[in-house]
Amino acid sequence: MQVAIVSDIHGNRHALEAVLADIAQSDADRLWCLGDVVGYGADPNDCCTIVREHAAVCLAGNHDLAVTGALPLDEFSRGAALAARWTQEVLAPEHRDWLASLDPADTEEGVGLFHASPRDPVWEYVLSALLAELCFDAVPHQLSLIGHSHVALAFVREEGEPATGRARRGGEAEELGEARWLVNPGSVGQPRDGDARAAWLLLDLGAGTVEWRRTEYDVAGAAAAIRSAHLPDSLAERLQYGQ
Ligand code: ZN
After folding, report:
1. Please, what is the average pLDDT of the chain?
2. CB atoms within 10 A of CB 57
3. What percent of the chain has pLDDT over 70?
4. Other residues' Cβ atoms within 10 Å of the Cβ of residue 14
5. I need a surface site. Which of 62, 114, 208, 228 has the fewest CB within 10 A?
6. Alpha helices in 11-43 (DSSP H)
């Protein structure tokens, strides 16, 4: 079974549609989404519609929980809070109810799914080997998939060894073997690892492999949509730099 993993779509319909077209060309037969379907981008309703139609599993991210009112907006940066408030105004009630029904953590086929981290599935950014160690100790899964940092990466811990990890470029692949893994597909809708292309991951459960993928999309179109929605200009600008 091959699974396409997406995360941190953030209302970027242009990126999501391009990624789904790419996934359709792959051998993936299902889609898992690690959350943050909305927030930052100009097309939250379209993104909810598309994810609800295609994803077998969807987690709640911190931005989704901000939009439903489950998290207070004062825990967010100014730009994120503005975008969350705007999303609250434009989001269809049925999509808001759907987001409110989601959880930030799940297990599928023995794989741990966490929006942010196994220790704190809503807020913790796993960007260091030290934090990865604590996460490995917190859960039993051999493989955990995480989003939230918008950086495509992997941490690995071989039996008896310390955890190591680094960012991953599009096209890189790994055999999981017997080691423990924390894998982040990167962000579909707002990459922050210096590559503006939309990020996703192909997981082959039978072969025990993961492959990081990047997909070109209409960045200018997504930025123009953000500007015409009168969302902060910085949210449009950062898309072209992947930051
Ligand atoms: Zn996010």
Report:
1. 97
2. 17
3. 100
4. 23
5. 228
6. 13-24
Angstrom distance (rounded) from CA 14 to CA 18: 6
Residue 143 Cα to ligand 1 middle (Å):
21
SS3 state of residue 224: helix
Residues at Cβ < 5 Å from ligand 1 ion: 8, 36
The b/e string for 210-221 (b: 16+ C-beta within 10 A; e otherwise) is: bbbbbbebebee
Where do the domains of the chain lie?
Answer: 2-241
Between CA 194 and CA 36 the distance in angstroms is 20
107-133: average pLDDT? 97
Query: How far, in Å, from the CA of 123 to the mean position of ligand 1?
Result: 10
Domain 2-241: give its CATH code: 3.60.21.10
pLDDT tens profile 130-158: 999 999 999 999 999 999 999 999 999 99
Question: How far does residue 51's CA lie from ligand 1's centre (Å)?
Answer: 15
pLDDT at 142: 98
Q: What is the reported pTM?
A: 0.97
Cα–Cα separations (whole angstroms), residue 112 to 141, 181, 196: 6, 10, 27
Residue 99, pLDDT score: 98
